[in-house]
Structure formats: C-alpha cells, structure tokens
Amino acid sequence: VVVPHHNVTRLFSSSEHWYGFGPDDVWSLFHSFAFDVSVWEIWGALLHGGRLVVVPQEVTRSPGDFLRLLADERVTVLSQTPSAFYQLMAADRADPRTGSRLGLRRIVFAGEALDLGRLDEWYTRHAEDAPVLVNMYGITETTVHASFLALDRALAAGADGSLVGEPLADLGFHVLDQDLRPVPPGTAGELYVTGPGLARNYANRPGLTAERFVACPFGAPGARMYRSGDLVRPRADGGLEYLGRGDD
Fold this sequence. Notes:
five-stranded mixed β-sheet; 13 strands; 10 helices; 2 domains
C-alpha cells in the first residue's frame, strides 16, 4: 500500500482538536513496524516533541510486565488492539497497586472490533476521564485511523456490538448498497471512505487498485473513495455500528 508522507501529517492535524498532544506526552511503541498502528505510535510522539518508549518484545507478551512498564515510564498515550487490552485489564485487576500508578490520559483502540460491554470492568477501577478510552476505526488504505469515538461507562454499557464513531475532520463516510446507493438507517451496507487520507494505490497492482479505489459519485470530478469491505449499519442517532467483513 503506497501511503505518502503527507497522509501521516494530516492524520494528526485532523485529529488534533480531540487529543491536544504535546511535548509532555509519553507514547508506547507496543506494535511491530509491520502493523500500521506503529505509524501512529512513532510519529505521534516525534511530531509533537514527546517521548517514545520502545516496548521490548518479551514485555509485549507479558501483560503484567507491560502494566508495570506503563506505570514506571509514566506513559500517557497507549494504543492497543482490543484483544491485547482485555489481557491488560486482567493484569490490572490482578495488580491494582500498579494499576493505581498509571499516568495514562488516552487509550486508543484499533485493529479489530471492540466489544464495548467488556470495558465495564475497567471502569470499575478507573475514572472515565483518566484515561479517556477512544475507539478509532481505520484501515491501512486510509492511513491508520479514519474515525474517532470517545467512550464513557454509560456508552459502553448501553452499546450492543462495536461502534465506529465519526470520521476524522478531513474524511467522509458513505454507507452504500451494491449499486452505490446510500442505505437508510437500520440497514446494513458497505462502508466507503473519502478524503485526503486515502492511500495512493497498491504498488504494482493496478487491477486491485481499480477494484478498491473507485470513483466517488458524491464528490468533485476525479474524487475517489475506498471500498473498505466492512459492513456497517447506520443508527438513528447518526452513528455507525460495525457488523464485520462483507467477505466473511
């Protein structure tokens, strides 16, 4: 996937009003360079003058050791897949003294669907705003993250399934049927993403590029949209519920 450098800088400028990252933030590099979330972790720290803690591989495999590292290094911005965070929650439950020393202010979920109902256990031990939990839907082809949804205990308790959130400021979402027509609320459709976060193409794969990066009928001439392959359902409140892959 060919992603220009500009896509990364606009990823942070388009989400700055939600986060307010700065030089006092400490980020953890938990993920492999082969996983696109590492782009968020590395450049989030460097572009804002923060500190980046590179997590040793053996620590990434030990939730208890990772919890202690987060507390000792005073990490403020943590990115996790939901499955990794569920293990970290178990370590936090087993070692509440270390959990009470955490300095986190943001935990960002990405990479897979988040089961909101499982977060209630976390909220029994930690305040809703210390840290704020955020769900960010995204795809490599849209430059790591494409949406933002700040969570709280009430939202997590009342949600059925996983919620996508609103698109970043410079992106757009369209939920369409197989004929590229918008679907009404309550009806499942495929999510298409528009805007400057879209990757340039698939390197040396023109056929796949033409299949996934398609002309956008809702924008200016030449505008593109990315066909995600993900099924979502628009809600009456304007949100989107994630349903899974359309090709599963």
